[in-house]
């Protein structure tokens, strides 16, 4: 077999070496995996560079690259066998003629800004499947005057010859390969102990540390607000990476990427609450397929809007309802152009965010705030470090609430027409103009 579904990824060790004034980087990726069927050939996703050498369990293996796939022919692997594949490669930070790649360049450094779930294989060879999560070690080597950045915990900094340094980051909770962040630049790390012992770690431009400290301090309260509704934060570290240049916003495990200009211009409370919520829904509990992505985007939009309303009018149910009513007014237009939240058309934008948030609000309106919170906490507890499908969410909501909410949620997630909002019969949603 030659697909990427013939094995389970278990652990990655990714190393990249940045050199100033060059867009080429030497890299090594070591993947530990388990064969799910007998294998004489398997594939990794890789479309960003040139492969120099491949070994499987220490033995050199034949390989070929074709159409953003790296096909490897090792010794035959039995079903259930664990194996290790190491790829030495060179990657070029080139986004192609249409600019669809993940690279964002600065004067001396770069950051990653994925456009879709399909771009991280331009950074390193991987199994680019959002449902196949693995633990990660990422090592970034760069000039010592710069800081190599990755999500996870910084576990080691090694000075190297030529005034260079290697920084190693470790993620002990599994994540999809697509959800990483890797960057290099003139950055400083700011750390302190946050709520419930979480290590708060921000990475910001060194020249803007003083300017950004006050707004970064808001994260502690945002974390407290979300844990009060969802339960314990799922990881040991959290913070904001504020890169130079136009990057993000987007989330990766333990880290939200929000560019320095956005942070410097204001508090960005909705954006920050949205990205923080993705640590629960997206990073810890990962949508099983792209059609299930409303579970990540809908939750982040729901809690981001709720936090923003609560910040302006603490404890006001009316302020949150006003926000949901605005989304409701747009919903039919979005369904007409993008499809329903759990079955979007191939090119989708807002429906999984706004429509997904409305589905959650309809559930809360139906079962009440207390049962809704029980459902949410049950979901993040049962599926921690795993993947979640729409069917899984519907089943959990039904079991925990004790109410048959399947028809309600099915309408909100799959219907072509916007359903009536429970408790708000006066709300109207406009269709797209003919």
From TrEMBL:
It comes from the Bacteria. Its cofactor is Zn(2+). Coiled coil: none annotated. Residues 271-412 form the Peptidase M1 membrane alanine aminopeptidase domain. Pfam families: Peptidase_M1. It catalyses: Release of an N-terminal amino acid, Xaa-|-Yaa- from a peptide, amide or arylamide. Xaa is preferably Ala, but may be most amino acids including Pro (slow action). When a terminal hydrophobic residue is followed by a prolyl residue, the two may be released as an intact Xaa-Pro dipeptide. It is an enzyme of class 3 (hydrolase). Its EC number is 3.4.11.2. InterPro entries: Aminopeptidase_N-like_N_sf, Peptidase_M1, Peptidase_M1_aminopeptidases, Peptidase_M1_dom, Peptidase_M4/M1_CTD_sf. Gene3D superfamilies: Neutral Protease Domain 2, tricorn interacting facor f3 domain. Belongs to the peptidase M1 family. This is Aminopeptidase N.
